[in-house]
Amino acid sequence: MSSTTEIASSFIQDAPPGELQDVVKDIQSLTSDTDPFLLSRLKPAFQKYNEEQLATAELPARTEPVRSIFSPSSCGHYTDMSSAKVIISKYNRLPDGRYFDSESNTSFDFDHVTQKASNPQPYTHPSPHRDLIASLQMCISNYAHEHYASPATGVYPTTAPSDSDSDPDPDSNSSTLALLLVSNRYSPSNFWSGRWRSTYVFSPRTHDHHGALLRRRQRQPDHAQARARGPLRTTGILLLRPGHPPRRKRRIRSR
Predict the structure, then answer these.
(1) 113 and 36 together in one domain
(2) How much of the chain is helix, strand and coil, in % rounded to 5?
(3) Compositional bias (Basic residues) at which positions (predicted)?
(4) Who contacts 205 (Cβ-Cβ below 8 Å, separation ≥6)?
(5) Are residues 110 and 21 in the same domain?
(6) Global model pTM greater than 0.70
(7) In this structure, are 159 and 89 located in the same domain?
(8) Which of 38, 138, 165, 235 is most exposed by smallest CB count within 10 Å?
(9) Are 44 and 70 in the same domain?
(10) Dihedral, CA atoms, 76, 82, 87, 91, nearest 10 degrees?
(11) Quick check: 142 pLDDT over 90?
């Protein structure tokens, strides 16, 4: 990897929440004359950033009607999520490079440079836990919309779909589910932006669960930076109780 590519990749990884396109414009303005093909070599860096930051995108409307996977259940109420954003992560990346959304049963292309989703198609993941995924998705969606601003959520199997025709073994040790929650607040005109990310991994076989929460803040006042150097990190445990929305216990530490 050339020094220019390494430097530009570091710029991408340090992009503040909601400001990746500003970084892209800066890279283009600095290298358009000397290295016009640099952006094409930076695709791995863009993918790493979007998946680690749990980037969100608006999913274009499909031409055919979308059947919701949700119905009223023990979570208490039904929320219409037809216009919700989709999450980009390693958990919902398909082998062909597309991504899927468990909420709308849709797969789609994603441009990691422009952060735009396109070409939505019907898709259902061949997981043995489809009913559990649907139930957890509804619960975490309702919970997130009650407690977070403009959230996006997703529940995904942590193993990629197999080419085999047989269903995966639901009792396999590797058969776990990832529960993701993202909330973004952007206000560049006021010199701040922030992103909340929660990732939990749950084992249906053992009922074990562990997770991490990251809050990333940028452009803080000097006195705030002195109190919390770098992103605030928390580790948490998601509490899953039948008939109740998810709750969490958390321990917080700064670094």
Answers:
(1) no
(2) 25, 30, 45
(3) 244-255
(4) 170, 171, 172, 173, 175
(5) no
(6) yes
(7) yes
(8) 165
(9) no
(10) 70
(11) yes
